[in-house]
């Protein structure tokens, strides 16, 4: 892993590269963000936004969603991967929101993760973006970029989340999450990362190891 001063320099450079980094799931409230985040698993934000643009015009509350049969909701989100299981999760979590939380999205990790289809990553996205509560959501992009650069060296998302929370100041968790996602989508791609175009390649462990292997 990079030393603390190197991590600080890396993040500062990434902030400069992506000054407008933010959540790219379109939403107008915490409920829409929750549903969109559940839908986004193994699916691009772009595809989710295309589907929810129509979905949220007709279905705006948990009560609206529970009027649907699972097959009906499946038909409305079938362009999204894993749409059958996601439809099941959404209808289940909407029922819990109605029965236990007065149709309001809860604002704690403990309450969010009892909802069907909601794990730590989804909960952290909701906490940070809907409630501005410091959280470090680790999705596939954050996991890949953090491990490649050397901000972390965890084998699973929980370890990486804990490492990042220790290495990055709490007040920077939210912006760091968005910035690492932007970098992963634009430069540090899963296949064929654009290392030559990367503004932090001089600090990146992955890039420097690649150079050594070519010697």
Explain the overall architecture.
By secondary structure, this protein is an all-alpha fold. It has 2 domains: 95 residues, Endonuclease Iii, domain 2 (Orthogonal Bundle); 101 residues, Hypothetical protein, domain 2 (Endonuclease III, domain 1), CATH 1.10.340.30. The protein is 60% helix and 0% strand. It contains 12 helices and no strands. Helix 9 packs across helix 11. The longest helix is centred in the middle third of the chain and has 19 residues. It is elongated, with a radius of gyration of 19 Å.
Q: Can you give keywords for this protein?
A:
215 residues, mainly alpha, Endonuclease Iii, domain 2, Endonuclease III, domain 1, 2 domains, 60% helix, 0% strand, elongated
Question: Can you lay out the helices and strands and say which pair or pack?
Answer:
Elements: H1 4-17, H2 30-39, H3 45-58, H4 62-65, H5 70-77, H6 83-101, H7 109-112, H8 120-130, H9 140-149, H10 157-167, H11 173-186, H12 205-214
Written as H for each helix and E for each strand, in order along the chain, the element string is: HHHHHHHHHHHH
Structural class: mainly alpha
CATH architecture of the largest domain: Orthogonal Bundle
Rg: 19 Å
Percent range for β-strand residues: under 5%
Q: Helix share of residues?
A: 55-70%
Query: Briefly, what CATH class of the largest domain?
Result: Mainly Alpha
């Amino acid at each position: 892993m990079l030393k603390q001063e190197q991590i600080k320099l890396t993040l500062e450079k990434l902030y400069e590269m992506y000054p407008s980094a933010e959540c790219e799931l379109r939403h107008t409230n915490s409920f829409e963000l929750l549903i969109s985040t559940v839908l986004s698993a193994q699916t691009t934000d772009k595809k989710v936004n295309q589907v929810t643009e129509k979905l949220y015009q007709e279905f705006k509350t948990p009560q609206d969603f529970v009027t649907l049969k699972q097959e009906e909701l499946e038909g409305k989100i079938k362009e999204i991967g894993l749409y059958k299981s996601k439809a099941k999760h959404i209808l289940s979590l909407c029922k819990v929101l109605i029965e236990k939380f007065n149709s309001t999205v809860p604002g704690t990790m403990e309450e969010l993760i009892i909802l069907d289809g909601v794990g730590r990553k989804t909960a952290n996205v909701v906490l940070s973006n809907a409630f501005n509560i410091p959280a470090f959501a680790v999705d596939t992009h954050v996991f890949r970029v953090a491990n490649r650069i050397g901000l972390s060296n965890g084998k699973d998302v929980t370890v990486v989340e804990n490492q990042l929370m220790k290495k990055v100041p709490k007040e920077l968790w939210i912006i760091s999450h968005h910035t690492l996602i932007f970098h992963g989508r634009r430069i540090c791609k899963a296949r064929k990362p654009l290392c030559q175009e990367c503004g932090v390649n001089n600090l990146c462990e992955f890039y420097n190891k690649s150079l050594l292997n070519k010697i």
